[in-house]
Every structure is written in structure tokens, then in C-alpha cells.
Write the C-alpha cells for this entry.
Amino acid sequence: MDTSAKANILFAEDEENLGMLLKEYMRIKGYEIDLYQDGEKAFAGFQKLRYDLCILDVMMPLKDGITLAKEIRMLNTTVPILFLTSKSEKEDVLEGFAAGADDYIKKPFSIEELLLRVEAILRRTRGENIVQNQDVFTIASFTFNSAKQTLVKDDVTQKLTAKESELLKQLCINQNAVLDRNFALKTIWNDDTYFNARSMDVYITKLRRYLKEDSGIQIINIRGKGFKLIW
């Protein structure tokens, strides 16, 4: 997979020399990259354009990288975020991940190392996008077709509602990983209200009932986080 092909990167860095150096290097490597020298300009740019990756310096004027990441996450829950930081304290790293970071790299770093991190993140996220477009999933002894909204086992077909199908697809995409509760609510119900959350719990119960014919399949509650489909 050519990770640089049509990959658009938002780069927020207030050190002008470093910013221009990395910008030119990444362009030579085939990436489209927009450089912003403070957090406010970067956020304004993110609101206008679509990006495949955000590289954010933690320490910036007007709006720091942590605050910028939180605001980006309010608009987009999936775009990958890579932090550049000169801080090494554990608390700063944890704060970055809590704000929505996918990875971080400490200054000083080599340009080659940054490129490898970028390529790894884009390979993963573009692979996830391919799965997002997948319609047919094998769930142990079941075959699930999200486009047809059917769940089939031993030639017996269970017809699913649109919400059931969307929820099961998200569980399949995140197989053996946690499907974040708020992400599912915003993706499927468009809002994470209390009533929608209760509605989702009902749909989880229905999916468990459909899948109980295979005792090896479980939908587990992960307290305070979401659900995990395992088999």
C-alpha cells in the first residue's frame, strides 16, 4: 500500500525552521502537507479541509497541541494524531493520549523516524477504512452481510434492522478490541444522549440473543468504555 498517495497532513509547529524542513521533506516523499505556526490557525484549517493525519507540536502559541487535539476530536473521532513533544514526563505523555493522540515522538528526533511513524499510522488507518467498506463478515459459524442486513447460520437467516446491522458491523470491525460506547452512539445514533444509550443497550441484548446459537461468541461489556465482540 502506498501510504503517501493522496495523503493530506495537517502540521502544526511554531518553530519555523523545523516546520519548513519537515514540510519540504514530507512533500519530497509524496505527501500533501499544510504547515500552521500556531494552534488557532491549525484548528481553522482543520475546519475547512480534510486531513488524513495531524502532526501537532505540544508547545505552541495561542493554542497548545493538547487543547488543539481535544478540539479536533470534537469534530472528528477517527483522524490520527501524532504529537511532537520535548517533554518526557510520563504525565505529559498520558495527557496527550487522553486528548486523543495515536502516537508521539520526542524532540530531538530524526526525520527518518518521523516518516516511519507517519507511514505506520497511515497503513493502519487506511487498512481500517478498507474494513469499514467491507459488507460480509464471518462471525464463527455465522455469516453476516451488513448490506443485506442478514445473519445466516446453517441456512437459517435472521433479518436484522438497520440499527442492529450497523451496530453489529461496528462490533465486527473492532473484533477482539473495544468498540467505544460514545463512538458507537455518535456514529449510529448521531448523539450520545441517555435515551440513545439505553436504546443501544437494548440492541446489544438483541444481538446477543441472535448469536447465542454459537456458544463460542460473546459480546462483553467493558465497564466505562464500551463493548467487545469475541469468538
